[in-house]
Amino acid sequence: MPAPSKRSPDSVSDVVRWGAFSCVVVPCVLIMSGGSVGGAAGAAAGLAAVTCASRALLRQSERTAARVRVREVGRHRDRSGRMGPGAHGSGRHCDRRTPVN
Description:
- The protein is mainly α.
- The protein has a domain at about 35-70.
- It is built from two helices and no strands.
- The protein has helices at about 10-30, 35-70.
- The protein is rod-shaped and about 95 Å long.
C-alpha cells in the first residue's frame, strides 16, 4: 500500500478509500476474467464488510490512543523512567533521620 498522501493527514480515510476502490475493481476484474456475476457480487460484499470492520477498528484504536495521550500529559518521569510522585525530584524529607555516631 502506498504511503499516506501529504494532502490527507487522516490515514484511516486513506485506508477506507483504498478499500472502496478494491470493492469496485475486484468484481470488474473477476467478471472480465470470466467469473460469474454472483461470485463477483459476493466478492464485493465480502470486501465491503472487511473494509467497514477495518474502519471501525482503526477508529477505535485512534480513540484509545488519544485517551492514553491525554492521561500521560500530566505524568512526569524521573531519570530511571519511573512515573509517579517520586519522579518529581528530590527535596526535603523530614521523616528521615541521619545516623548519629
